[in-house]
Amino acid sequence: MIRVAIAEDHIIVRDGLRQILLLYDDIEIICEAGTGADLVKGLRRCPADLVLMDMSMPDGGLALIAAIRGIKPTIPILILSMHNEPGVVRSALEAGGNGYVTKTCDAETLIFAVRRVSRGERFLDPSLTKAILLDGQRPRLADRLSARELEVLTLLARGQSLTQIALSLEISIKTVSTHKTNLMEKLGLQNNVDLTRFAIQNGVS
Fold this sequence. Notes:
Blueprint: E1 2-7, H1 11-21, E2 27-33, H2 36-45, E3 50-54, H3 61-71, E4 77-81, H4 86-95, E5 99-102, H5 107-118, E6 123-124, H6 129-135, H7 141-144, H8 147-157, H9 162-169, H10 173-187, H11 192-201
Parallel strand pairs: 1-2, 1-3, 3-4, 4-5, 5-6
Helix pairs in contact: 2-3, 8-10, 8-11, 9-10
């Protein structure tokens, strides 16, 4: 029996996932959550065998993958997302995801992915394979930005002000501003809207 924890903030999507998964005798839904915080709480008390999580829900993204790894270092994580950009997919897998399927996949692909990832194997939605291979020729985001610049980019994408970021990272506002300027120059961006869009497309936010 595969005990699955579902994390999806849209109730109608979560209901649909439940209905699909419960059609199979070897799958059991043991935990459901609408936010990253609720998922982490649920995993602390539920003996789940696999996490099926949306990347874009509140408290989601790469930070949630890291939080899951903090309490359940070996649990398989299958990402379910509306994003099919190679940068988003690659970032999710590099952050600790074991598999990635898009919300346009059919039920058969989803179930195959759940079973495969639960066994500790990797799975990538077939519709993404070609784009990921082609994208492999482009430099990774982590190779272009420093660790601190990635932190600032993440917090900017979450809507934090320079003052809030300075407090969060325990650095001066001037230093945050310098990092922001460097980010825009390195990435060829003009404003906060561009930064936010770039962060979402690359799975950083």
